[in-house]
Design goal:
single chain, 370 residues, alpha/beta, Spore Coat Polysaccharide Biosynthesis Protein SpsA, Chain A, 2 domains, eight-stranded mixed β-sheet, three-stranded mixed β-sheet, 13 strands, 42% helix, globular
Length: 370
């Protein structure tokens, strides 16, 4: 994993296209207000309640944004809170047969949007100060690059903010999630193979050309499969880090939600990871287990352990170096990496069991099958 590039704010834009932020939300009363508040505090023009005009060009020095919240059958106060922020709130139609909930909500939001650029955000994300302009500026800069021929689909890995101790158990999952996209490798010839599920920035034109979320309507990992659709259509992929731009707190509802969240699709995600990348991940995980096992065996045998102890702390520092670039993980997560590795393996095989057995798992008050 090389240096993770972030979004950059630019001051050379004289005109901005219209931008629509689309937020699918199901039972997000604890999150939706934080996201909408962060949007309202941006240095941009936020138009709520009424859509932006469809055919009037904008000549502004700051992006003008419409915010659309798709209330996906919430049974809590998600809708009421969203309306309190003057957002455009759409009540989702009943889930059609063959559709997953998130793709269906995103598709409806996109059909209602009037912006030339569509920004899809999960409801548990938060946009940092000036972050929205950074996102739009970065998208426009990257899409105009000669390296992005026909178009660009941009995705941002949110910076993970940890508050409670149990959330540290997401450490290995986060490293693998970021690494599996091939987005931050030191090899320039390797292109990103996927998009992060929490965010997608794409032009309206290219979104509807591939059929948008309707083309991945039955996929849990809609971001991975949509990335393939973009690539097949000649649209290039770009991933950036979210530090200073986009952040989130994963699974704040407790340890059970964390386990179910990672169980939901992680084994399926491994099946979509490029073979060479998957092999490197397996080798990296295996090296961690080998260090732990050898250190324990040498210690119990009374043999010198200085070499294996040195390797242990080298692995600790490597994990900490990676974690600090993707979140506020504490050093204790790296120091006690054996616990994180064991937890990862347990949840991974739990996910694999649900996938093979075709059993469903409860998520957002819906039964979801891998």
């Amino acid at each position: 994993m090389k240096k993770i590039d972030s979004c950059i704010r630019r001051n050379d834009k004289k005109e901005y296209p219209k931008v629509s932020v689309i937020i699918p939300a199901r039972n997000e009363e604890h999150n939706i207000g934080k996201l909408l508040s962060s949007i309202n505090n941006q240095n941009v023009g936020v138009h709520c309640n009424e859509p932006l005009p469809k055919h009037e060009p904008l000549q502004t020095h700051e992006p003008v944004i419409e915010v659309i919240v798709v209330n996906d059958g919430s049974t809590d106060k998600t809708k009421e809170i969203a309306l309190g922020y003057d957002s455009i709130v759409i009540d989702s139609k009943p889930l059609p047969v063959g559709w997953m909930g998130k793709p269906w909500a995103c598709w409806q939001g996109a059909e209602s949007a009037t912006g030339d650029i569509l920004i899809f955000l999960d409801a548990d994300t938060i946009i940092e100060p000036n972050g929205l302009k950074k996102i739009v500026d970065s998208y426009l800069f990257e899409s105009q690059s000669s390296n992005h021929g026909k178009g660009l689909a941009l995705s941002i890995a949110p910076y993970h903010k940890i508050e409670k101790l149990y959330e540290e158990f997401s450490a290995i999952f986060n490293i693998i999630m970021v690494g599996s996209m091939n987005a931050f490798t030191p090899f320039k010839s390797i292109k990103p193979t996927g998009l992060f599920g929490q965010s997608l920035i794409v032009s309206r034109k290219h979104y509807f050309e591939i059929g948008g979320h309707s083309s991945v309507k039955n996929k849990i990992l809609e971001n991975v499969f949509m990335a393939r659709k973009f690539k097949d259509a000649g649209v290039n992929l770009k991933c950036l880090g979210g530090k200073g731009t986009l952040s989130f707190r994963m699974y704040p509802d407790g340890f059970k939600a964390l386990v179910n969240g990672w169980t939901k699709a992680f084994a399926a995600g491994a099946g979509q990871t490029p073979f060479f990348t998957l092999l490197l991940i397996i080798l990296w995980l295996s090296s961690g287990f080998i260090i732990i096992i050898k250190l324990k065996l040498e210690f119990l045998s009374g043999n010198p352990i200085i070499i294996w102890l040195s390797l242990y702390f080298t692995f600790v520092l490597q994990i900490y170096w990676m974690l600090r670039r993707i979140g506020t993980f504490r050093f204790i997560s790296s120091l006690l990496f054996p616990a994180n590795l064991l937890f990862y393996v347990i949840v991974f095989f739990r996910s694999l069991y649900y996938q093979i057995s075709k059993k469903s798992i409860s998520w957002k008050s819906r039964e979801v099958s891998n």
